[in-house]
Amino acid sequence: MSCLNSQATAMMCPRGMTARIQIALTVTLFAWAGAAMAQKSSADSIAEYRTMLQDGNPADLFEAKGEDLWKQKRGPKNASLEQCDLGKGPGVVKGAWVELPRYFADTGRVQDMESRLLTCMQTLQGFNAEALAKTPFGKDEQNNVTAIATWISAESKGMTFNLSQSHVEERKMYEVGKRLFYLRGGSHDFACATCHAQDDKRIRLQDLPNLTKQPGAANGFGAWPAYRVSNGQMWGMQLRLNDCYRQQRFPYPLFGSEATIALGVYMGVNGKGGDATAPAIKR
Amino acid sequence: MNRIDALIVAVATTLLAACSTPMPSGAELDKLTQDILARSFRAEGQAKLERISPDEDNRLCAESDQTGVALDAKVAQAIEARNMATIQPPKDGKFLGDWKQGEAIAQSGAGKTWTDKEGSVNGGNCYNCHQISQEELSYGTLGPSLYNYGKLRGVANPNSVESKPIVEYTWGKLHNARAYNACSNMPRFGHKGILTEVQIQHVMALLLDPASPVNK
């Protein structure tokens, strides 16, 4: 993580944030060294490494960028997102994330945070939501969507998940999400459930949350958006699911597609009562 | 109609619509899932859309996983029988290759994703789920430990008559695990073309060769 090797961070360096980056970098290096020296079990070392990184989570930088973007007048309509309705009324951000995905009457569908942001960027700012959805991860406006999602999630940090299941469309999406979670496919016959339906399992040394119930569901679902140290990138839930499907050897899930939203409903509802820890930091 | 009246009508209509729409049946939800699946993915690289049309074995196992209702014994036997029928013995008659190459295959998780080049060499992903040699500490726990696999099964000489059943079983398990356990989570390495016959021979040696670190 540095101004030199992270495109997104480099973009922010001229905005007087170099001091924060240096602090984050110092903490990162210190944690790396600490993890290497520790004579403990690898799981303990990883947990300690994450705790140390938490103080200097580079997600803070994306969070600050996201808040700026929310308030900034942008797009063809030169408007801010401050009137965006994330489910709790126009402009209400705090607590919105722990209730998403949810049904929205204006679009007539269940939406997660990222797909809802595209709706707001289209209706309020005049962007083309379809074009935004087709933009590859890590490019152009997709970076902004990730940053805004990071800030929105951070505004619910420490709150507990409470997704609605009162609308029939929300209940339908839960049932579809459950079916998708267990769907075996691809060249390797993998389902989400292959790795994420049992307690206390791991892949290599990586612990696998059981996403079918608490506490695994909130631990897994509630941590994204997260900063990934291994590649120096900020990942939203859409990219997290996209990379799961890549590793499952499935075809490419469309950004904001119903399948990804249904999985969000399934995990979020299963995580009811669990803590929202996003934006988290991952290996 | 003033604005408040209009709002009340709008809210009431929405609520009525929400309450009066019944929850679809299980079969309708299965159909909706298939429709959503068809609308939610695109082909990318070698990961074509046909990969999300599950075969009958996967459909039955997924339904059992999802509902928590175990497969009917006859259905499970039928799945195992049709997968058993896919298993081919080695063309050159040799079950074991080189354990060193087997270790490299077990270590590799490469292949078959949309970011892998089509036709590139695939790995076996073995360490993702299994402990294998004692030297490799970074192993997963989704599958059972395979450390001392051959030794525990008394394989002193893999070419002996006594070892034949376990050697043939292991070959079959690597080729198509669903022949022995209808809804196993293990990929069907031979049947689905993930590993070549030569690669399976190397992984066989890793598990069964008395010289392999697995059996030390």
Structure summarized in a few sentences:
The complex is a heterodimer of chains A (283) and B (216). By secondary structure, chain A is mostly helical.
Question: What does this protein look like?
Answer:
- Chain A is built from twelve helices and eight strands.
- Chain A is mainly α and 283 residues long.
- Chain A folds into two domains: 1-56; 67-283, Cytochrome Bc1 Complex, Chain D, domain 2, CATH 1.10.760.10.
- Chain A starts with 6 loop residues before the first helix and ends with a strand.
- Residues 1-39 of chain A have low confidence and may be disordered.
- Chain B has 216 residues and is mainly alpha-helical.
- Chain B has two domains: 3-70, no CATH class; 99-215, Cytochrome Bc1 Complex, Chain D, domain 2 (Orthogonal Bundle).
- Chain B has nine helices and one strand, in the order ααβααααααα.
- Chain B has helices spanning 3-20, 26-40, 56-67, 73-84, 99-107, 126-129, 149-152, 164-175, 197-208; one strand at 41-42.
- The longest helix of chain B has 18 residues, at 3-20.
- The mean pLDDT of chain B is 93.
- The chains are: A mainly alpha (283), B mainly alpha (216).
- The interface between A and B is large, with 48 and 51 residues.
Features:
heterodimer, A: 283 residues, mainly alpha, Cytochrome Bc1 Complex, Chain D, domain 2, 2 domains, three-stranded mixed β-sheet, two-stranded antiparallel sheet, 47% helix, 8% strand, disordered N terminus, B: 216 residues, elongated
Could you state the order of secondary-structure elements of chain A as H and E?
Answer: HHHHEEHHHHHEEHEEHEHE
Largest sheet of chain A: 3 strands, mixed
C-alpha end-to-end distance of chain B: 86 Å
Q: What name is given to the CATH topology of the largest domain in chain A?
A: Cytochrome Bc1 Complex, Chain D, domain 2
CATH domain fold name of the largest domain in chain B: Cytochrome Bc1 Complex, Chain D, domain 2
* 3D shape of chain B: elongated
Could you give the order of strands across the largest sheet of chain A? 6-5-8
| Number of separate domains of chain B | 2
Count interface residues per chain for the largest interface.
A-B, 48 and 51 residues
Q: What is the β-strand count of chain B?
A: 1
What top-tier CATH class of the largest domain in chain B fits best?
Answer: Mainly Alpha
Nearest-integer average pLDDT of chain B: 93
